[in-house]
Amino acid sequence: MRLTDYTDYSLRVLLYLAVRGEGLSTIQDISEAYGISKNHLMKVVQRLSELGWVETVRGRNGGLRLAERTRTLTVGEIVRATENDFALVACLPDQDGQRRPCVITPQCRLRNVLEAARHAFLAELDRHTIEEVSGPQGPLAALLGIRPVIPLVPVEPPGDSPVPIA
To answer: Pfam families, per this entry (predicted)?
Structure first.
């Protein structure tokens, strides 16, 4: 079984945003990190936004970030939402429940084996969340060219610090 590029890119976008954390990212950032076309990513991000998995912020300083609930999504849930066909062979039901007839269907054991394999594949994907596959974030961030977000620490202006009493 092979996943479509659309599903691959969807997983990569979610992984990138999970590693990135709180800050906003742009489609350009993700495109450069993975070497993927911005046009393809725009379609993917639009769908991920429609699903509520990615939050988008419009404007000059806008971008996108992972919706909080997305961290607990399983890889299987994402694959099911982005793939359009899990019929490994023509006699298995497609997305619409349709299947092509086959002359050996009444005695075929292969169909059941392939159906079981598909279920096992998706069951394994259901065991892993985006949060889990995005760690450890440091090494992944380095590979993706993501610099760590340094939290701002308030600095006391000079002269406002307490003076020790002798």
So the answer is: Rrf2
Among the ranges given (22-26, 43-47, 121-125, 148-152), the one the predictor scored with the smallest mean pLDDT? 148-152
| Count of C-beta atoms within a 10 Å radius of residue 76 | 17
**How far is 29 from 6, CA to CA, in rounded Å?**
18
Nearest to 27 by CA among 68, 64, 82: 64
Q: What CATH number is given to the structural domain containing 28?
A: 1.10.10.10
* HSE toward the beta carbon, residue 12, CA cutoff 13 A: 23
The answer to whether residues 55 and 67 touch, using CB atoms and an 8 Å cutoff, is yes
- Decide: 16 and 53 in contact? Cβ < 8 Å: no
Q: How far is CA 132 from CA 8, 55, 88, 160, in A?
A: 17, 20, 28, 45
Instruction: Return the half-sphere exposure (C-beta side, CA atoms, 13 A cut-off) of residue 83.
Output: 19
- Residue 46 domain flag: yes
Tokens 């392939």 correspond to what residue? 114
